[in-house]
Design goal:
mainly beta; five-stranded antiparallel sheet; 2 helices; about 45% strand
Length: about 525
């Protein structure tokens, strides 16, 4: 029998929004798309992200009692980094890992005197940084001292790298640098509010005391990034972006060409998150105090990407430790890891922003403390996991795994709080359908509805068996569930009670399995003749 005063409303999921009210933002706003990413084949359909898989365990590295990995940088197939060890006791030591060959390369020259004390894995910090300049890999670390402020790894013989630590010569750095970055073939060192730069292709040499640039006020440089700029005559030049907490400077040219320029470009905008600075085809992205921004190839700084419910910004504004935020870009996705203090449990979260589609997904499970792009994937150091590197893909393949760190991935698909009815009355939902596919293997699917106070109104949980002609006849009756569930189709959700509310959040949870898809959520609303006083 047809319902009176009924109105069907379909919600095609688009991306995650911070909004508290779905009526104030874009259609298709979601509260969560956890462990779900856009289906490469179909708009507004989502599929499970691949699980992160163990790449290597440092128990095979020759490093004694490997602990917290404090630095990670990938160049070609080689991962450079620093890791805590007990030999030397209480020190962070460099490592070299050949990803393609799955082997650790031994480093000579490491002593207690030329390695820094280990850093903590929690709390505010100055993260170590790494850059490759000429035949040297340069390391900064907050626990180097002013006499030995920089670490150098000589890779002129790649299979036999040699470690040392010291200062630039003949002009020494005045203190321990906060960061290092390669620009115009030189090592740029951040010391206080000044960039000190080395000779070309020799990060240990500074021939002149004039090899420095002071950037604005006396606040410290936080970090560096570089971006190719497109000029008005269509030629391309590389620029070094110098980030301070509330300002960005742009350095172009080089002293050798008498073209060196230092330009203030974004007063009031900066970052406290040096590991969030990441290069993309559209420019240099970073987390400001207000969320994700980009310095584009014209040198312009964008408004916040995701502000005002247009996406995700609240977890970054409310990061418990902004200096611990880490980010990286690959293919079409920026991954940003933070600890969200706006939630009482202070969860570590991994948010993904798809630059092709302009949509957010997350928060994803297995967040990283450090993340680096590699080939068509990412290499991560998982939060709270010591002495291991994982590979984390973003593109689902038929061969992808959905078991992560011994656990099957669980997805969460949750629609933003549905708006009040325009007639100001309560509504009732009896009929719901959801676009779903199980084409490879079965799994568990759960549907739920909760009102604006978080009260659970109803939930239904079932196990799906692919190639079964009847979908759990014991609990669901004898109706056919679309025959074999191998194609994307609209599936009716048989609520056990009428759902009465003024606003509600609908969603689904379950196992992330190969061949699963979820898309449009459709409700048939019946407008009731009253409102809650």
């Amino acid at each position: 029998m047809a319902l009176n005063n009924q109105q069907p409303i379909a919600m095609n999921p688009v991306g995650v929004s911070d909004t508290s009210d779905g009526s104030t933002v874009f259609a298709g706003a979601m509260t969560a798309l956890t462990n779900l990413v856009p289906d490469p084949s179909t708009a507004n359909v989502f599929v499970p992200r691949p699980a992160a898989t163990l790449l290597t365990d440092f128990s095979t590295s020759g490093i004694s009692s490997p602990g917290f990995i404090s630095a990670l940088y990938i160049s070609g197939d080689i991962a450079y980094g620093m890791i805590a060890t007990d030999t030397p006791l209480g020190k962070d030591v460099p490592f070299v890992y050949d990803i393609a060959g799955d082997t650790f390369i031994s480093i000579s020259g490491i002593t207690s005197g030329n390695t820094p004390d280990s850093v903590s894995s929690t709390g505010a910090w100055i993260p170590p940084t790494i850059a490759v300049v000429g035949t040297k890999v340069v390391f900064t670390h907050p626990n180097f001292d002013s006499l030995v402020p920089v670490g150098f790894l000589d890779i002129s013989t790649p299979t036999a790298p040699v470690w040392s630590a010291g200062n630039t010569a003949p002009r020494a750095l005045p203190d321990v640098p906060r960061a290092v970055h390669e620009f115009a073939g030189r090592a740029y060192y951040a010391v206080g509010n000044t960039s000190y730069y080395s000779d070309i292709l020799d990060p240990e040499a500074r021939a002149s005391s004039d090899q420095s640039i002071t950037h604005g006020d006396d606040s410290d440089i936080i970090g560096y990034g570089s971006v190719p700029l497109t000029s008005t005559n269509s030629s391309n030049i590389e620029a070094l972006m110098v980030f301070k907490p509330k300002i960005i400077f742009q350095v172009t040219g080089d002293e050798a060409l008498s073209t060196l320029l230092n330009t203030e470009m974004a007063a009031g905008i900066g970052t406290e998150s040096p590991l969030s600075i990441t290069s993309t085809p559209g420019g240099l992205m970073f987390i400001s105090q207000h969320g994700l921004r980009v310095v584009d190839v014209r040198g312009d700084v964008s408004p916040v990407i995701g502000a005002d419910g247009k996406g995700v910004s609240v977890p970054f504004i409310n990061s418990l430790e902004p200096s611990r935020i880490s980010a990286a870009f690959n293919i079409n996705t920026v991954r940003i890891n933070t600890q969200n203090s706006s939630i009482p449990t202070l969860p570590f979260q991994d948010w993904w922003y798809n630059t092709d589609l302009g949509v957010w997904t997350g928060p994803h499970g297995f967040p990283a403390s450090l993340v680096q792009p590699y080939g068509g994937t990412f290499v991560i150091t998982p939060q709270g996991v010591e002495g291991q590197l994982y590979q984390s893909d973003i593109v689902p393949l038929d061969s992808s795994s959905y078991v992560e760190n011994g656990q099957t991935l669980e997805y969460l698909y949750q629609v933003s709080l549905s708006p009040d009815a325009p007639t100001m009355n309560e509504v009732c939902v009896l009929e719901t359908s959801v676009g779903i596919q199980f084409s490879k293997v079965g799994g568990t699917v759960n549907f739920f509805c909760q009102d604006e106070n978080g009260t659970l109104l109803d939930q239904v949980s079932e196990t799906i068996v692919v190639n079964a002609s009847v979908w759990d006849t014991t609990d669901w009756g004898t109706s056919q569930w679309g025959g074999n569930v191998t194609n994307y189709q609209q599936i009716r959700v048989p609520w056990t009670v009428p759902l009465v509310f003024s606003q509600a959040a609908f969603g689904s949870t379950g196992e992330a399995v190969n061949g699963f898809k979820i898309g449009v959520w459709s409700n048939r609303y019946q407008m009731l003749g009253y409102m809650v006083p």
